[in-house]
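Hi team, as promised in this morning's meeting, here are the two structures we talked about. I've kept the exact order from the run log so nobody has to guess. The first one is mostly here for context; it's the second one we should focus on when we meet again. Sequence first, then the predicted C-alpha cells.
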Amino acid sequence: MPVNDKNTPAKLTGQCVSIAYGQHRIVEDLDLIVPERRFTALIGPNGSGKSTVLRTFAGLMAKADGTILLDGHSIDTLSTKEMAKRVGVLLQGPVAPEGLTVRDLVQQGRYPHRSLFGRWSEQDQDACEEALMLTGMTTLADTALDSLSGGQRQRAWIAMTLAQQGEVLLLDEPTTYLDLAHQIELMNLITVLVHKHGKTVVAVLHDINQAARYAEHVVILKGGKITAAGPPDEVISAEAIADVFGVKSVIIRDPVAGTPLCVPL
C-alpha cells in the first residue's frame, strides 16, 4: 500500500530541466524528485511529456537546460556504459532479432559489465539466472521470443533490464497491449522488485487507478509541467483529474487496496 515519501531520500532528481525538439520546448523548468526504493508512476494525458521525461532521465535524450542527478551526482559525468550499469531502461515496443531466445535476450543485459574481449563470467551467469527467476521466466529461458505471449515477452524484456543489476528501472508504458491478467502480473512483479529487492522503479502509466493502487509516488504531468506529485492519497483528486484530463469524476476508496479509485462521470 502506498506510503508517504517525504522522509525518503531521492534517487533521481531533476532541477530546472528543460527538454526541446529543435526549437520547440516540450518540457520547461521541470523539478522532479524520484524517491529511492519506491515505485513512482508518471501519469498525464497524451503529449504531456511523460515519455520524453523518462528518456531524458535515462540519458537517452539530451536536455536543453538544467541538471539531472543520480544519487546526488550529475548524470552528465557518467559514461554511457556506467549509466547502463546503474539504470535499466525498457522503452515502448522493443524489438529483438528474429530467432532470439529468452536467455539470449537476457544475456544482452550484461553487456555494460563486460569489456570488449571479456569472457562470460560466473557473475554474468548468476545475474542472468537471478533475472530469469525474479521474472518467472526460468522454464522459458530456451524458448524463442517470437513464440511467447505478450505478457511473457514483456517479462523477458524486464529480465534483460534486471540482468544489468542497476538500482533503477525506467519503464515506458510497460502494460500497453497486455490483457488484464498480464497487467496485474507485471504490476505485482514491480511491487516485488521494489519492496523485496530494493529497486527504484519509474513507470509511465496510462491507467490512473493502476498508478494509485501500485505506486507509492505519483507524478501528474500536463503540458510538460508537473501539476502534482506525492502519495496517491494527496495528488489524485476529482479536481486534479478535471484539470489535467478534462474529465469529471468522483474519487472513492478502492475496496481492496484502500487507495484512491477514480470513477469517471
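And here is the second protein, the one for discussion:
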Amino acid sequence: MNIAAVPGQTKAKRILQYVLKSGKVSHAYLFSGPSGTGRMALALAFAKALFCTAGGDDACGECLECRKFEHGNQPDLHRVAPDGASVKLGQIQELQREMAFRTTSQHRKVYIMEHAETMTVQASNSLLKFLEEPLSPTVAILLTDNPLAVLPTIRSRAQIIPFLPFPPEQMLQELVNEGQPHLLARAAVHLASGIDGARQLIQQNGFAEMRNVVIQLGKEGLTRFTAAMITAQQRLFKTELGEQSELFLSLLLLWFKDMIHFQAGRQEKMVFIDQSEWIGTHAFAHSVDYWVECMEHTLEAGKRIAANVAPQLAVEQLLVNLQEG
C-alpha cells in the first residue's frame, strides 16, 4: 500500500509526503493517536517510500526496492513490538545489533516500534542514546496512543505526526461498502477511533447480541423496573456478555443520545435507526435535560465499575436511578 492509498489521515499524509518530496527526512517520527486510526498502515507506507529509489512524494511500486518491500524481502526494515507487556532493554540492544550490521552500507535503515509508550526506563534510555548516535543512516518510526508516556527526551528528538479519529460518517460508508452489517456498523463507528477498530468490534463475539440487550434494557429501564432487573440478570450477567460491562454502558449512552437526536430532528445521526418508531413515540415523553441526566447516570455507573464496584451491582444501581428519574 502506498501513502496515498491509506484511508483518511489527510494531515499526517500531507506532512510525510512533503518530507519525502523535499528530502528533509528526520531521524525519528512519533506517530501519535488513538488505536485503530491507521498508524501502522501509514508507517509501512512511509517506510516503503523511504526505500523507493524513484524519488517523489510516494513509493512508485515498481522499482527493485519497492518490489522487495512488497514481497517482505527488505532486510533494512526492522519491526519491534512489546515482549509481553513492554518493550524491553534486550529488544533495543538486539535492534542496535541489527542496525549496526553492514554499517559501511549507505542504504537507509528503518525501524518501526509498536506501542512505544510501553518501553521500560532502561529500554528508553538505550533507545535515546541510539537516536543521538546512530551507526548508519537510520529512520525511527515510533507508534503510540499515549505520547505523554514516552520519555520526554525521546519526544523532543522526534517529529510528531498526529493521527485523528476518523469521522463516523466516513467509517460507516467504508464499512457498508465492504459488506459489513449496516446496523452493527452504525454502532461500531461511534465506539472506535478508526476503521480497523470498528471492524474488529463488529466481528467481536457477542457484539450483535449486546446491541439487542441494550435495546431491551433501554426500553424496560424507564418504565418496567422489575422486567429490566430480570433482563439484566438473565441476558447480561448470567452470560458471557457480563464481562463486557464497558461495551454495554457505551451502547446505552448511544441509546439515550438517540432520544436527543430524534427530538432535535437529527434522525440521520441516530445509531439505533431500526428502533426509530419506538424512539419517536417515547423521545418526547421527557425533556432533553432528562435524557442528559440518563446519560450522566450511565457515565457514573462506568466510574463505579472503574473504582472496582462489581459490574452487576453498578448496573442494578443504574437501573434504580433511571427508574427514579
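Starting points for discussion:
The radius of gyration is 24 Å.
Residues 3 and 42 are 6 Å apart (CA to CA).
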